[in-house]
Design a protein that fits this description.
2 copies of one chain form a homodimer.
Chain A lengths: L2 H4 L10 E11 L2 E4 L1 H13 L2 H7 L4 H14 L5 E3 L9 E3 L1 H19 L2 H8 L4
Antiparallel strand pairs in A: 1-2, 3-4
Chain lengths: 128, 128
């Protein structure tokens, strides 16, 4: 209801204004980590398969594979390892480094959002 | 060169790792402000026309117009005003509120990025 907008709380929870911070981390010419890659890693961890993860995200297998390939190339060691065969049939698992990278990425997203809590409260005063 | 990566500076400027923070600010069901809308406002301010701004951003006129319409609906007063006729031929100008909104948005992007400077330096140690 409109009433909730008139007194925005510092946490932003009482307003209809929501902030979604997305971080794109480029390394040389590639995006090493970003919203799509983080979602994909989490989906691979949940499904144990690149193709199932891609389906879940409505992403083509080819695109998912390219994102995995980019991540594996940018980091010191692979974030995703494919098992037995590696092609569409084989399973995949997120490595310890992969889990660490997603965790750090999500924490950075959260911190980035929280850093502008005050500005967002002020911003909400500009809304209808 | 590879040497620059081995000692990431706190500012991140000496590493090949670059952070691009993007903020999407939702109001009710709409994205009131985000990367595309901020770019569009700046492009309209630079060109004085929605169609020229859209061309510059390789965006269709229809899409640009829809983004402007969403922004104008979400905020207390319009961020963009169309002049004389309003259709593709007419000019457009960013209002004082529009300039204020873009300025605040860019400042929030900057602050959000700076909030994770330390985490980014740590992150860079994970890169190849």
């Amino acid at each position: 209801m409109a009433a909730s907008k008139t007194s925005p709380s510092p946490s932003g929870s009482a307003t209809k204004l929501e902030l979604k911070p997305q971080l794109r981390i480029s390394f040389r010419k590639s995006i090493a980590m970003g919203p799509g890659k983080a979602d994909l890693l989490e989906s691979i961890a949940a499904t144990g398969s690149i193709s199932a993860a891609a389906r879940k995200l409505a992403m083509s297998y080819r695109r998912a594979w390219l994102l995995v390939d980019t991540m594996n190339t940018c980091f010191k060691s692979p974030l995703v390892e494919t098992l037995t065969g590696g092609a569409q049939g084989g399973g995949a698992q997120v490595t310890a480094l992969g889990h660490d990278v997603v965790k750090r990425y999500r924490e950075m997203e959260k911190k980035a959002g929280e850093s502008v809590t005050r500005e967002m409260a002020e911003f909400s005063d500009l809304m209808r």
